[in-house]
Design a protein that fits this description.
Elements lengths: L1 H17 L3 E5 L3 E3 L4 E7 L4 E4 L6 E16 L2 E14 L3 E5 L3 E4 L2 E4 L3 E6 L11 H8 E7 L10 E9 L4 E9 L6 E6 L7 E5 L2 E15 L3 E5 L3 E13 L5 E11 L3 E5 L15 E10 L3 E3 L4 E11 L15 E3 L3 E9 L2 E14 L3 E5 L3 E6 L4 E6 L3 E6 L2 H4 L16 H7 L20 H29 L1 H22 L4 H20 L8 H10 L4 H16 L7 H21 L2
Parallel strand pairs: 2-10, 21-28, 22-30
Antiparallel strand pairs: 1-3, 3-6, 4-8, 5-6, 7-10, 8-9, 11-12, 12-16, 13-18, 14-16, 15-16, 17-20, 18-19, 21-23, 23-26, 24-26, 25-26, 27-30, 28-29
Helix pairs in contact: 6-7, 7-9, 7-10, 8-9, 9-10
Length: about 575
């Protein structure tokens, strides 16, 4: 009887083990946008060709990690294999994680879809040793607005600063949500390098970098909203563990930071004292009316310029119209702008240039023109009035020799007199030369024109084909571009010897772009562990590998360590030598 029970038990266990299970398990179904989610794909039989689902609504912050459990208990084998991922939600909402697939014994198995609900950020327990908690207290993104109560069309600036405590480091940052300025005219100001500066945040000493500068001109009155800038930042925070030299080991965490939305209360321009014909100019301006000629003949044309220069919303208003005597023919004005946008706002000049043609001799007055604007310093309207010009038109030779009377000569009797008068100032004289009497047929020029296309067409086709092939070579173009950047930044580093921050920023960029060109990695993969892994795959010697990583480490810690010019020169020579060595080993 015992033998029968034992046989039955083995038979039943064999049947149960023969059934394949492949499941997806999640750590939680509901989480805040500031939390992390773990998902495990577990199978009870080993398989091949594992394909995870597309985590399109999540960022993979960890994994895949693989674990295998294989044991025998009372003669029964127990096996499980698990692929684990750690996910961070990109936004709020209800999302579905799709099916994972694996092939086991020639059959394809799939997990069931998993539904996840992501809510607003939740309050987490404040563990002082938690790296995420430390990062939240050590890094801050701030939007500094120059004026929260501007007038309509008054320039304001928004400067986005990332404040970093001196005992943590930032490895990389990525924009995940850009601000939009729907009710503003906006212009971004170029930020030349992310130079680290000393500052304070809420009374404490911090380092900071300026990430973005924007000049805004509000186009509506009332309360206008500036949407926030959000970043995903990789932060290195110190842990409680220390090495043999007493230095803290660093933990790497990803932190989402936001500058927060800002509300701007825009004031309308006062109605009291507003001049008639005011076109919305706000700032401080000069105004002038000028002409390129004061004396001319009826066969000539001249230009009249209306120009406004100074500081203010130069691109956002119209210049006053020019009114001239009816005896002068005026063409549509040509608008010219020479405006720069600085942190203080627009600066430069705008002008309308009118081409004017006199038809009859005489003295023609160009009446004065007025231009009004709202002055921000005095908070009042000001009106500028130009000088009055006199244009003296003398009768040209054709005008003096014009026959008197209203009859036209016989050749022009059917010509409209008004048309003749209109185009008379543009008459020109022609100078004709005799054509060369030498025969063109069978000459050198003849054969060049006949045979030239047959020679040029293959050359042009070859050139176009080569250019198109080069454009389609995306990978090659990317490598060439990154190599060029590496050489550029290496040269910048050499020129910056003695200037610690500029030198190490340029040197780190040079190493970064060199690796991108040689190993085809992206910015997010630029860390020492990944570099070691990829260089090992390329069979780079261990000594050269560690030398390269040591130069990277020097660039990271240099911002917070006093160094001499000799140290910088040594680091530069080490970087140049190791790049030369890696070039010979990496194909």
């Amino acid at each position: 009887m015992k033998i029968k029970v034992l046989i039955f038990t083995f038979f039943l266990s064999g049947l149960l083990f023969g059934q394949v299970s492949f499941n997806a398990k999640i750590s939680k179904k509901q989480l805040g946008i500031n939390e992390r989610l773990r998902i495990d794909f577990t199978m009870n039989k080993d398989g091949d060709e594992f394909e995870p689902p597309e985590f399109k609504d999540f960022n993979v912050v960890g994994g895949p990690s693989q674990s295998i459990n294989n044991s025998w208990v009372n003669g029964v084998r127990s096996f499980s294999k698990t692929y684990s991922y750690f996910l961070a939600p990109k936004k709020r909402g209800r999302f579905t994680i799709g099916q994972a697939t694996i092939e086991i014994d020639g059959e394809v198995y799939k997990t069931l879809p998993v539904k996840i609900t992501v809510s607003t950020a939740i309050e987490k327990p404040k563990d002082p040793n938690d790296p995420n908690y430390i990062a939240s207290k050590k890094i801050h993104l701030v939007a500094e607005v120059s004026n929260s109560k501007p007038y309509l069309n008054e320039a304001i600036t928004v400067v986005y600063k990332l404040y970093i405590s001196q005992d943590v480091g930032v490895r990389s940052s990525r924009e995940i949500d850009k601000p939009r300025y729907s009710d503003f005219w906006s212009q971004n100001i170029d930020v030349e390098g992310l130079g680290v500066k000393q500052g304070s945040y809420k009374g404490e000493s911090y380092l900071y970098v300026v990430l973005k500068k924007t000049v805004l001109y509000p186009q509506k009155t009332g309360k206008l909203k500036i949407e926030p800038l959000s970043l995903d930042v990789t932060v290195e925070v110190p842990s409680n563990r220390r090495d043999v030299f007493g230095r803290s080991y660093m933990n790497t965490v990803n932190r989402k930071v936001s500058a927060g939305s800002r509300t701007i209360n825009v004031k309308s321009l006062p109605e009291k004292g507003k001049p008639e014909g005011f076109s919305g100019a706000v700032g401080s301006f000069d105004f002038k009316l000028s002409s390129n000629k004061k004396e001319l003949k009826t066969s000539e044309a001249f230009e009249v310029n209306l120009e406004v220069s100074g500081n203010g919303n130069l691109k956002l208003f119209k210049l006053p119209a020019l009114v001239l005597p009816s005896a002068l023919e005026v063409y549509e004005p040509e608008h010219n702008e020479k405006v720069r946008t600085l942190m203080s706002g627009m600066k430069g000049r705008v002008a309308d240039s009118y081409t004017v043609v006199p038809n009859e001799p005489g003295n023609y007055p160009i009446p004065s023109v007025s231009f009004s604007y709202f002055d921000l310093k005095s908070k009042s309207y000001k009106t500028l009035i130009s000088e009055r010009l006199i244009i003296a038109v003398d009768a040209g030779a054709e005008q003096r020799n014009k026959p008197k009377g209203n009859k036209l000569n016989k050749e022009n009797k059917n010509t409209n007199a008004a048309d003749v008068k209109q185009f008379q100032p543009f008459r020109t004289t022609a100078s004709f030369k005799p054509i060369n009497s030498k025969l063109f047929f069978r000459s050198l020029s003849f054969w060049v024109l006949i045979l030239g296309p047959f020679v040029l067409i293959p050359i042009i086709i070859f050139f176009i084909r080569s250019r198109n092939e080069k454009k389609l070579d995306v990978a090659g173009n990317k490598i060439r571009k990154t190599k060029k950047l590496a050489r550029k930044y290496l040269g910048e580093a050499k020129n910056s010897l003695g200037q610690k921050d500029q030198f190490y920023i340029a040197l780190e960029r040079a190493l970064h772009n060199y690796l991108k060109s040689k190993l085809n990695i992206e910015t997010g993969d630029f860390n020492k562990d990944k570099v070691r892994e990829l260089l090992n795959k390329k069979n780079v010697g261990l000594a050269d590998l560690e030398s390269f990583v040591s130069v990277l480490t020097a660039c990271e810690i240099a911002r917070y360590t006093p160094l001499s010019s000799v140290d910088m020169k040594n680091d530069f020579e080490r970087a140049a030598q190791i790049i030369t060595k890696l070039d010979k080993q990496i194909k």
